[in-house]
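Progress against Task 2.4 (sequence-to-structure conversion) is shown through the following example record, which the project officer requested during the mid-term review.
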Amino acid sequence: MAGVSMTRGEVRRAARATLGDLIRHEPIGMATPSTTQMTLGAFRDDIQSRAMPGCGAVAANAAADGLALVLKGLRLTQSKDQDTRCARLIAQAQQLVTQLSGYADEDIAAFKAYLAAKKHADENDADKRLDRAVERINQVPLETARCCLEPLEYTEQAMGDIKPALQSDARAGARLVHAGLSMVLINVDTNIDGLEDEAERRQLAGQRAALQAEADRLLERLLRARS
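Structure tokens generated for the chain above:
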């Protein structure tokens, strides 16, 4: 999702004033198709012309595409006798690709819920709905980043099962996964800036730093193993 200030007080005070243009131009009541059902061109067109998809959805799909490069290496390496280990790795990678794609859709859905909550800010349960929406858009980027760590760990485990000629694809894929994780953490930075409670700010900042540090460590170890 695009960066949104997470301050609950600001959400309540400016429920109608902020993001008004987005609310008017987004079909909030309509179901959003999964990004996996869109062509690459249609997805790119939506990125440049609409409020959604934003950074979070693009980051999750980038990570999924990166892992797909690793998965390609395994599929093209797999022998006809269906090696058990390779088959298990392929199944595991496919599950992770599906999870990452799901986070792209969840990012869009969370932002839509936020806009919908702001649009109906005058209703009786408005504060509760806004609080739930704010909590959701705080959590989705963190959950996406955590999910991105798994493909980095997975790639390190799978590299020895990929033909040398295809390992460059796998390493490039790992870099793309790492980039996706780093991208989605930019949303976390925006969320931290919007928090009023200092303890919450420190907690979220600590989680963010730990995720980036672990991703950096995994990528460095993977690339160093080449030499």
